[in-house]
């Protein structure tokens, strides 16, 4: 559970109580608005996938927790909302450095904290295993054995944990969730590791596959702003996260998205 232990020093050292004058419910002043959304539009970044948001194949509409929380944040700031979706973590991190977004929703870890300043987590996500049909793996303890190949998204919470924890199984790293499931479907891996929400969804269309009980790790998900952005932006986003948790906005978004293996993070 290294991710959990790391959160406290990694989360931005902000005095949440000192933000009381920012007017979260009654609008924001121009300085704060310019800090949070310098282009006049709130560009909210996230990874495509059930935990954050999914795209309707017919309409292209994005829906999910990241969209719900991002739109509400934009409403409070008083600017339009713009979704900035990425297929993998390295691309999202690169977007922080090149100025492609203003606020990101992302798993919290040390590598990402080098590129962005995080709020406390707004939700916690279980990572687990999905086993291909016909593979004799019954428990999580059976996975770490010679001859077992595990597909995993590069730089994801599961990959960062398993790269240190595994002793015998082989990791096969991919660049997108779709590639991860493709490894399973083509028999190139016996198991894939990902968020349990994605695994439960994937198992429904793969007869005989099964999501193993238990979890690899619990990944904290927070909101971040690009490293070095005006401190007012990080403070405002951090306060918004706490209000979104206490006002049940996060819980409602999770319920609306039908996520499994996901919980609202404790208040800070």
Biggest β-sheet strands, sense, barrel: 11 strands, mixed
String of helices and strands: HHEEEHEHEHEEEHEHEHEEHHE
Which CATH-level-2 architecture of the largest domain? Answer: 3-Layer(aba) Sandwich
Structurally, the number of domains stands at 2
Helix content: 25-40%
Count of individual beta strands: 13
User: Which structural class do you get from the secondary structure elements?
Assistant: alpha/beta
Number of discrete helical segments? 10
The fold-level CATH name of the largest domain is D-Maltodextrin-Binding Protein, domain 2
Tell me the radius of gyration. Answer: 19 Å
Q: What is the CATH class name of the largest domain?
A: Alpha Beta
End-to-end distance, in Å? 19 Å
Shape: elongated
Q: What is the fourth-level CATH superfamily of the largest domain?
A: Periplasmic binding protein-like II
